[in-house]
Amino acid sequence: MPQQIHVEAYERLTARGHENIRALHRTTFELTKDSDVAIQGDCILGVKLDRAVADLSQEFRSAIKRDTAIVIIVLEVENLSDVVLARGSSRLTLEDHRRVVVRRSRFVGGETLAIESNKAARDIDRRLIEKLRSRDAEIVVHIYVLDLCDVSTPTGLKGINLVKKL
After folding, report:
1. pLDDT tens across 43-75, in order?
2. Residues of the chain whose pLDDT is less than 70?
3. Strand 138-147 to strand 9-16: parallel, antiparallel, or no bridges (unpaired)?
4. Order of strands, sheet of 138-147, starting from the edge strand that comes earlier in the sequence
5. Considering only CA atoms, which of 145, 137, 110 is closest in space to residue 23?
6. What is the model's pTM?
7. DSSP 37-62
8. Distance from C-alpha of 99 to C-alpha of 48, rounded to nearest angstrom
9. Is residue 129 classed exposed, middle or buried when 0-12, 13-18 and 19+ CB atoms within 10 A define those classes?
10. What is the predicted pLDDT for the residue at 148?
């Protein structure tokens, strides 16, 4: 029987596409509340973000600010999705009111949601990015926070079902 791992916290964000989205950055990806993006903004995946890191719930903020936090980010555009794995940190401040940034590095700024990500903008499924080059496109971002202490099993994540705590 599969083991169940409880999701410590969950947030759902939405943003819109834009014709200038290129998503070529090697170390980060970003979503912004800004309405427009310049062609130089090669880390941006979406504009008109509904909430930035400062707007996230207190429950979520507490969960992701643990050094044992594992972050699973599911990016969805229409019928396509991509999954990003990252870590939380006790160093996160989550104080930016405009942006959400996920980083491959351990650098933390006020806009940083997660660090040590397995993907940056250039690693996101290119079919998904192509759809985001339209202002009509909507990206839905599901962010799950798990506690590493709960995930430590002999079999790893194989055979584990994610269940949100109510």
Report:
1. 999 999 999 999 999 999 999 999 999 999 999
2. 1-4, 150-166
3. antiparallel
4. 9-16, 138-147, 69-77, 80-87
5. 137
6. 0.89
7. --TT-TTEEEBS-S--GGGS-HHHHH
8. 10
9. buried
10. 82
Q: Are 90 and 115 in contact (CB under 8 A)?
A: no
Instruction: Compute the chain's Rg from CA coordinates.
Output: 15
State both tokens at 9.
Answer: 């916290």
Cβ atoms 40, 157 nearer than 8 A? no
Closest to 29 (Cα-Cα) out of 40, 37, 41: 41
Rounded distance, CA 86 to CA 90, Å? Answer: 14
Closest CA to 165 of 147, 142, 139: 147
Q: Show the tokens assigned to 142.
A: 């599901």
Give CATH superfamily name and number for 3-150: mth639 domain like (2.60.120.630)
Token pair in block for residue 59: 């429950």
Structure tokens at 44: 């941006």
pLDDT for residue 162: 53
